[in-house]
Specification:
With 161 residues, this protein is α/β, with parallel strands linked by helices. The chain contains five helices and five strands, in the order βαβαβαβαβα. The radius of gyration is 21 Å and the shape is elongated.
């Protein structure tokens, strides 16, 4: 999973999508785009999204709706989200976003170097977390099998004999 996860870039303006994709291109990550919240949710539910750059204000399902939905589902709740806004950053917006688990809230226009640095860090951290979760899952699957095998070999050990 870690090597295959994608960056999902969501914005309802084509020029902003192009600018974000251009800024992220040097990272050589697989980028997927969505032009509205519904499309973004469909892409997230398909799986393998390792980070989402998400516009706050979009018609229909807006960025905060996408955040709320993804945070309710176990399989999507740990995906890092960078919320993008061009309409000002209020204390209420920041508070709500961070309470929902957004990794960062960034004002447009975005400095490409700063964006790449944040994305590289969050993407790597998410992929490392997923790899650790998989390792824990694999180890837990092995433990009951080992306990069952050892209890079959030495049934008298638990009886205090």
């Amino acid at each position: 999973m870690p090597e295959n996860s994608k960056l999902l870039v969501v914005d309802d303006h084509e020029d902003t999508l192009f600018a974000l994709e251009s800024a992220l291109d040097p990272l050589n990550y697989e980028l997927v785009r969505a032009t509205d919240g519904e499309q973004a949710l469909k892409e997230v539910l398909r799986g393998d999204v390792g980070l989402m750059l998400l516009d706050l204000r979009m018609p229909g399902v807006d960025g905060m709706d996408v955040v709320r939905y993804t945070r309710r589902l176990e399989q999507t709740q740990s995906i890092p989200i960078i919320l993008l806004t061009g309409f000002g950053l209020t204390r209420d917006l920041s508070h709500t976003a961070f309470q929902l688990g957004v990794a960062d809230v960034v004002m447009k226009p975005i400095d490409p170097l700063t964006l790449r640095t944040k994305v590289r860090y969050l993407y790597a951290t998410y992929n490392e977390l997923q790899a650790l979760r998989q390792e824990v899952h694999d180890l837990r699957a092995r433990v009951p099998a080992q306990r069952t095998a050892s209890s079959r070999r030495a049934p008298g050990l638990d009886s205090g004999v």
